[in-house]
Amino acid sequence: MNVLYTCDDNYVWIMGISVISLFENNKHIPGLEVCLLGENISIRNKNILGEIGKKYNRKITIIDVPEFNIPESIVSARWPLSAFTRLFSGKLLPDNIKRVLYLDCDTIICGNISSLDGWNMEGKIFCGVKDCIGKTYKKNIGMTGNDAYINAGVLLIDLEKLRNINIENNIDKYMYKYEKLISYADQDVLNGIFNKEIGYLPPKYDVMTIDVVHTYEEIEILRKPANFYSHDEIADALSDPRIIHYTTNMLVIRPWFKNSNHPLKGKFEQYMKISPWKNHSMAEMRFGGAGKAIKAVNVLPKGIAYRILGLVHAKLKPGYIRLKNWK
């Protein structure tokens, strides 16, 4: 089983803690290997990752992301190149790797994921967990309101099929049309280009912050999701999470900040304590303008506050983006 991460040197320590959780909870998987597509990874951090691999008798390969031909639209976009690296994994990984499980650095693998190794992708290029996104966001990026939209933090990728796609040409054409309407960087690009080539995983393989912090009914109010999981499917995921994904969500502070208030920060701390970064100095998270606005709305009764926040997130914000960039 091949697992892929991407990051620069600033996030290696978070990625390394995720790798430790992966190795700790999947000792039974034969041939489990990790590859990092890294940007400017220091010799020191490469050595630390090498020692982690030795400790668990696992192979960790670090590939320095080379300069390669990428669409001009990405170079000039408002996101760093690293945000798009996973879309080029077919070109950057060795040809002998036919399939890979991509994981964001901000994940903790807290259970058995061996079933993903032989998962039936049904001919799709990507498989992921549906995200709770409203119809207007999807329409902005060329999808229909009822299309399913996946989170790009946990992806099964059929590299053989991806290598048969002219990814540069596809991205260039897509960005020309939708760049100014995109809200979620390569996640929007992936869903917009490949929405007919995407399969779906059970939500236990990508339990996001919003799933943990809010009830199912609150999620419906806050995000107004279309083509999402049922109440029972989310409940099952919360009762048996295999991968925790510390996504951003309103005023929730993620566990690598010293003032974290994430309900599942203990899982991150559990693996940090047995990592080379157990004494890593953590910064304090401070909210900017958007956070202050959310705090102001939250002084209202919860039911009213959530309806206002849901209207802003699911309708007004994507509607404004659409109107501002209407051609």
Question: Can you describe what's shown?
Answer:
This protein is of the alpha/beta class. Helices cover 40% and strands 15% of the residues. A 7-stranded mixed β-sheet has the order 3-2-1-4-7-6-8, with helices on both faces. Strand 2, helix 2 and strand 3 (59-64) form a beta-alpha-beta unit. Helix 10 runs parallel beside helix 14 (302-324). The chain is globular. The mean pLDDT is 91.
Give the helices and strands, then pairings.
Blueprint: E1 2-8, H1 12-25, E2 33-39, H2 43-55, E3 59-64, H3 72-75, H4 89-92, E4 99-103, E5 107-109, E6 126-130, H5 135-140, E7 150-158, H6 159-163, H7 167-178, H8 185-194, E8 198-200, E9 207-208, H9 209-213, H10 216-223, H11 231-239, E10 243-245, H12 265-272, H13 289-297, H14 302-324
Parallel strand pairs: 1-2, 1-4, 2-3, 6-8, 9-10
Antiparallel strand pairs: 4-7, 5-10, 6-7
Helix pairs in contact: 10-14
Spatial strand arrangement across the major sheet: 3-2-1-4-7-6-8
Order of helices and strands: EHEHEHHEEEHEHHHEEHHHEHHH
Helix content: 25-40%
Number of strands: 10
Low-confidence runs of at least 5 consecutive residues = none
Total helical segments = 14
Largest sheet: 7 strands, mixed
- Radius of gyration, in Å, reads 20 Å
Structural class: alpha/beta
Termini separation comes to 46 Å
Task: Give a short overview.
This protein has 327 residues and is of the alpha/beta class. It is built from 14 helices and ten strands.
Main attributes?
globular; alpha/beta; 7-stranded mixed sheet; 10 strands; 3-stranded mixed sheet; 327 residues; 14 helices
